[in-house]
């Protein structure tokens, strides 16, 4: 089952200290704040979002979910599918979230360090795991983008289809949050290396960037700063699929 039957533009709702923020290249201290997570989520749904991308940034850095209350408030207030990442480290954590209304869990560090966790969750919740492969200088990084793994994204992706993953989320840390444009080549390479849908994230600044990622084969694109800064509208980005 393809969890993205048509190309989708997914707004990011990244939460730190209970507020929506956007970081530059994932570094603390670079954040711009955009207010209440529920208000942000509802704004994107009113603008036509078909799903939402939620991240507990404190959880990603600390390894435990620090913004559970804020995230739960978003999940309870929206009627579109939600994918959640940040601080999910065990199959029990993932199942608990899936049973409480989260549609897809995003596993980064846990999936890279213990791939079998993907199979364990997929046994009871098929197609619910999105494996997050974040790359810096062409290498997959974990622990909030602070530790290298020695793995190339295409090499890392190969193992997850057999384990039951529903999709790969690929974030290019080199361009993340800078609003300076994307690099489509790593996305194209990853799409060629796996049969799983690839969700691209990082660096989107213009509608041309969204178009380039779609043409590179991405099944969906997560957009954060560009939407919050009004570089383009979600409606305009979503209509690219009608071209």
How would you characterize the overall build of this protein?
The chain has 243 residues and is an alpha/beta fold. The protein has one domain (8-236): Aldolase class I (TIM Barrel). It is 34% helix and 26% strand. It is built from eleven helices and twelve strands. An eight-stranded parallel beta barrel has the order 1-4-5-6-7-10-11-12, surrounded by six helices. A hairpin with a 2-residue loop joins strand 7 and strand 8. Helix 1 packs parallel to helix 3 (68-77) and helix 4 runs parallel beside helix 6. It is globular. The protein starts with 7 loop residues before the first strand and ends in a 5-residue tail after the last helix.
Compact description:
By secondary structure, the protein is α/β, with parallel strands linked by helices.
Mean pLDDT: 89
Low-confidence stretches: none
**CATH topological fold name:** TIM Barrel
Report the structural category.
Answer: alpha/beta
Instruction: Report the span from N to C terminus.
Output: 25 Å
- In N-to-C order, the SSE pattern is EEEHEHHEHEHHEEEHEHEHEHH
The tally of beta strands, per DSSP, is 12
In terms of DSSP E residues, the strand content is 25-35%
Biggest sheet layout: 8 strands, parallel, barrel
Q: Quick one: CATH superfamily?
A: Aldolase class I
Q: Which architecture per CATH? A: Alpha-Beta Barrel
Element layout with pairings:
Layout: E1 8-16, E2 19-24, E3 27-33, H1 37-46, E4 52-56, H2 57-62, H3 68-77, E5 82-85, H4 91-99, E6 104-107, H5 109-113, H6 116-124, E7 129-136, E8 139-142, E9 147-148, H7 153-157, E10 167-172, H8 184-193, E11 198-201, H9 207-215, E12 220-223, H10 225-228, H11 234-238
Parallel strand pairs: 1-4, 1-12, 4-5, 5-6, 6-7, 7-10, 10-11, 11-12
Antiparallel strand pairs: 1-2, 2-3, 7-8, 8-9
């Amino acid at each position: 089952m393809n969890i993205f039957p048509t190309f989708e533009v997914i707004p990011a709702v990244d939460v730190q200290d209970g507020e929506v923020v956007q970081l530059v290249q994932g570094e603390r201290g670079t954040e711009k704040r955009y207010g209440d997570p529920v208000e942000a989520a509802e704004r994107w749904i009113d603008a036509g979002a078909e799903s939402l991308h939620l991240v507990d940034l404190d959880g990603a850095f600390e390894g435990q979910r620090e913004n559970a209350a804020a995230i739960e408030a978003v999940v309870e207030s929206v009627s579109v599918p939600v994918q959640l990442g940040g601080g999910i480290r065990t199959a029990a954590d993932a199942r608990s979230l899936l049973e409480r209304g989260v549609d897809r869990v995003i596993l980064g560090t846990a999936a890279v360090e213990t791939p079998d966790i993907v199979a364990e969750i997929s046994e009871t919740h098929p197609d619910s795991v999105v494996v997050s492969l974040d790359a810096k200088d062409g290498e997959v990084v974990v622990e909030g983008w602070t530790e290298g793994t020695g793995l190339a994204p295409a090499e890392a992706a190969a193992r997850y289809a057999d384990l039951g993953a529903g999709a790969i989320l690929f974030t290019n840390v080199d361009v993340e949050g800078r609003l300076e444009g994307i690099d489509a080549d790593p996305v194209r390479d990853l799409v060629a290396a796996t049969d799983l849908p690839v969700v691209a994230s990082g660096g989107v600044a213009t509608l041309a960037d969204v178009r380039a990622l779609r043409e590179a084969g991405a099944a969906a694109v997560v957009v954060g700063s560009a939407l919050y800064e009004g570089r383009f509208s979600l409606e305009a980005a979503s209509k690219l699929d009608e071209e």
